[in-house]
Amino acid sequence: MQAHPAQLNLQFDEIARATVARSPARPLVLMACSATKLNRPAPAMDLYRGVMFETFRAHVRADAQPQVIILSAQHGFIQPDAEIAPYDARMTADRAETLLSGLSTAMAGAAWPDQVGPVFLAGGMHYRRVMRAAVERWARKVGAGSAPTITETSGGIGMQRSQLGQYLDGLTELSEEIGRFPNGVPYIRRAGPFTVGERVIHAYRHLPGIAPRWATIRALFQGPSGLTAEADVEEGTGNRAYIASRWIALTNLQPNQ
Prior knowledge:
Layout: H1 6-18, E1 28-32, E2 42-43, H2 44-47, H3 51-59, E3 67-72, E4 76-78, E5 83-84, H4 93-101, H5 103-107, E6 119-122, H6 125-141, E7 150-152, H7 157-169, E8 177-180, E9 186-188, E10 190-191, E11 194-195, E12 199-202, E13 213-223, E14 226-235, E15 242-249, E16 253-254
Parallel strand pairs: 1-3, 1-6, 6-7
Antiparallel strand pairs: 2-5, 3-4, 8-9, 10-11, 12-13, 12-16, 13-14, 14-15
Helix pairs in contact: 3-7, 4-6
C-alpha cells in the first residue's frame, strides 16, 4: 500500500496520543427470537429453531463470527448462551411498546460490547424498532462519537433469510491487518460491508443538502469515534473534477450496490 500523506500521519499521531489503539470492533448481529423452539430448556441459540436461526447456522463462518445478542419477546435482550425454557410470548406492537418503555431493563440481560462496530438487525418490524432504540442507547453509553453503521432485514421471511445469509457470507475478521500507520495503529482489509480498494458512495445522513459522491476506500481503521475509512473522494464535476483524501466515519458510507 502506498505511503499516506504526511498531513494525515500528523493528524493520526495527535489522535494516538489521546487514545490507545485497539483491535477493531467485531460486527454485532441482533437476532429476533423465533416461534419454533425446542420443547425443553436450552441455551437460547440452540432453543430457537426458526428459519432465521437455521440461516445463521448455515452461513456463519468459523473465521469471522460476529457478536450476537438475541431479542426475546419474553425476556428482552439476552446472550446466545443464556439457558431459557420454551415460551409462547410473541412480539406484538404492544409488547414492543412495553420493552421500549423499560429499555434499560430490557437491555440488562445482554453483555453489550465495549466498542461500537457495524450492526446487523435481523427480524420483523416490531423487533427492529426495539433493536434500533437499544443500539442508540448502547452507542451513547460507550461514548461513540457517531451512530453505528446499521444494516437491517426487510421484506418477507424469504428475503430476510437471503439478506442475513449474504451479510454473514461477506464478513471477514476485523482483526485482519494489512498494514500499520507510522504510529503503530493498524489498518485492516474489511469492516462490515466495506473493503479496502472498493468504490463506495459517500453521503452525509445528517446533511441531506450535500449531494452523494463517489469515493474509493484506501484504508479502514478504528478511530477515536469508531470505525473510519481513509478514502479518495471524487469532488466537482466535468473539467473541475478532483480527488480529495478524507477520513470518513463508516456511518457516512454506503456500499455500491
